[in-house]
Amino acid sequence: MLSIENITHSIDAWLNGTFNPTVAVLLESLIVGFCVIGLFALLGLILVLMERKVSAYMQIRLGPNRVGPGGTLQTVADTLKLAMKEGLTPDGADKFLFNLAPFLVIVVAMMILAPVAFAKGTQIWDINIGVLYISAVSSLSVIGILMAGWASNNKYSLLGAMRSGAQIVSYELSAGLSIISIVVLTGSLRISDIIASQEDGWWIFKGHIPAVISFIIFIIAVTAETNRAPFDLAEAESELTAGFHTEYSGMKFALFFLAEYVNIFIVCAIAATLFLGGWMPLHIGHWAGFNRVMDYVPSSLWFTGKTFFLIFLIMWFRWTFPRLRIDQLLNLEWKYLLPMSMVNLLLITLIAIKGWHF
Amino acid sequence: MFLKKYISDVFGAVRSLLKGMRLTGYYFTHRKEIITQQYPDNREEMKLPERFRGEVVMLHDEHNEHACTGCTACELACPNGTIKIITKFDITPEGKKKKALDTFIYHLELCTMCNLCIEACPTDAIKMAQNFEHSVYDRSELTKKLNKPGSKIREGVE
Question: How far is A89 from A248, CA to CA, in rounded Å?
């Protein structure tokens, strides 16, 4: 049967048979690197188009509909436009940091991709502390944002970057606690173990209401971490023009833009992995017949379906909810989400110890 | 007591957010709600809202008669000097002089479509048309004479 797992295995076997192991590993890294870059480009094109279409339909508009059939080539045209533009570096900017920041942001986004399982047996690096790695690396992106804001030598950029710092640092807490609640239920930090533990049902169903609450808190927290509306204070188009990337143009701006959308994909992929079983098809307990029917759908399709459902959910948030003020944003985190997720973690721990989950 | 308020706050917030999401979700799934008009394509069947204001026109009936008395109320009402009314004196059959409209000059390029002239007109001689394709190559074409040549005031309009 043709599956991504078989393809990667046959490529691996062929490389190891043709070259010596060191060269094979190097070549594999190269292939993975190209795949990741290709995935990034594809995601940028698809997600931007999706965002524009979703926002249009939610605002009773049509959205892009002239370039290509139904407007599908709009983002390709936009990318070409950005590629043609001059990448301007302001005179007063710290040139080195200014040019480094967009690459840092995109590299961080690439690094988080490492432990994400795209399909059955398709994972770049099945590290045994996968979840910890994800939450550790995802906090690094704030350094890129602060760097961009500081190096721009622009007060709006700096304000946006500072806000982004405050926001990511505070929302990291509840995102982390929500992740921990699943780790408590699974008893492992390894992504493949977490997915395997959901073979008889996804954690959002198996973990009763506390799992649902921690899923909701995780979605809210990652929406804030990716600096999206209703938590888009770092960009704040209305008062800070574009926040930390005000001074960026051309491809450097495109990298920030791309990183934003790729980050959305990544956090949704992680949410899908932790709560909705990753590539695991919808299995209900020991209904063997039902489970077998569900297994006919390829695992990569399950993963993409769940991820894109969550991305749609986050876009739905963005185009529905009013923006928060900075104090409301921090109130929401410190007075509501954090206490709730702490109590919730206690409940989850109780469930895990008593074995009340299915 | 505090806890009760805290929890009811959370539930109220979640409920109102879900309410908003239900509306946008409804719009997302119902394409018939879309209000966008594909303008240059649908020029023939395009529908503008009733109150859309394109330009000021003067109404003439089939006898080439209008209702403008030349009172200059519109000229006075106009905030940016768009309208200039030139009056003349007609001689009535009784031999009296009567003020009448000679030329109604309308500067479309200055007009903000504020509708104040239409509000001010005591005889409803002018109204807002829905035509909005006003671009021309020479701005002098935007200065218009609204009363048609040879037109005169309708009988009985004071």
Answer: 7
Task: Identify the domain containing residue A49 by its residue range.
Answer: 1-81
Tokens of B25: 């979700």
Rounded alpha-carbon distances, angstroms, from residue A75 to A105, A229, A280, A313: 21, 21, 32, 21
Statement to judge: residues A65 and A104 lie in one domain: no
Residues A146 and A186 in one domain: yes
Measure Cα distances from A250 to A50, A253, A326 in Å. 22, 6, 29
The answer, for A62 touching chain B at a CB cutoff of 8 Å, is yes
Q: Biggest alpha carbon distance in chain B?
A: 90
Give the CA radius of gyration of chain B. 26
Whether residues A234 and A317 share a domain: the answer is yes
The verdict on A157 and A262 lying in the same domain is yes
User: Would the pTM of this model clear 0.90, i.e. be above it?
Assistant: no
**B10 lies within 8 A of chain A by CB:** yes
Is the Cβ–Cβ distance between A67 and A77 less than 8 Å?
Answer: yes
Min Cα–Cα distance to chain B from A12, Å: 44
CB pair distance less than 8 Å for B36 and A61: yes
Architecture field, domain B55-153: 2-Layer Sandwich (3.30)
Instruction: Determine the residue of chain B that is closest to A318 in CA distance.
Output: B21
Q: Are residues A149 and A283 in the same domain?
A: yes
Interface ipTM:
0.75
Nearest to A232 by CA among A178, A298, A164, A151: A164
Q: Using the 3D structure, point to which of A81, A96, A116 is the last residue of a domain.
A: A81
Domain match, A72 and A94 both: no
Report CA-CA distances (Å) from B144 to A89, A217, A255, B56, B141. Answer: 50, 63, 52, 10, 7
3-class SS of residue A201: coil
Question: Does residue A54 sit in the same domain as residue A191?
Answer: no
Number of domains making up chain A: 2
Closest CA to A106 of A209, A228, A253, A218: A253
Domain residues of chain B, as ranges?
2-35, 55-153
Nearest CA in chain B to A314: B21
Residue A219 sits in the same domain as residue A147? yes
Q: What type of residue sits at position B116?
A: L
Q: pLDDT tens track of chain A, all 358 residues?
A: 567 777 877 887 888 778 788 888 888 888 888 888 888 888 888 888 888 888 888 888 888 888 888 888 888 888 888 888 887 788 888 888 888 888 888 888 888 888 888 877 778 888 888 888 888 888 888 888 888 888 888 888 888 888 888 888 888 888 888 888 888 888 888 888 888 888 777 888 777 788 888 888 899 888 888 877 788 776 666 667 777 778 887 788 888 888 888 888 888 888 888 888 878 777 777 777 777 777 777 878 888 888 999 999 888 888 888 888 878 888 888 888 888 888 888 988 888 888 777 6
- Any CB–CB contact under 8 A between B7 and chain A? no
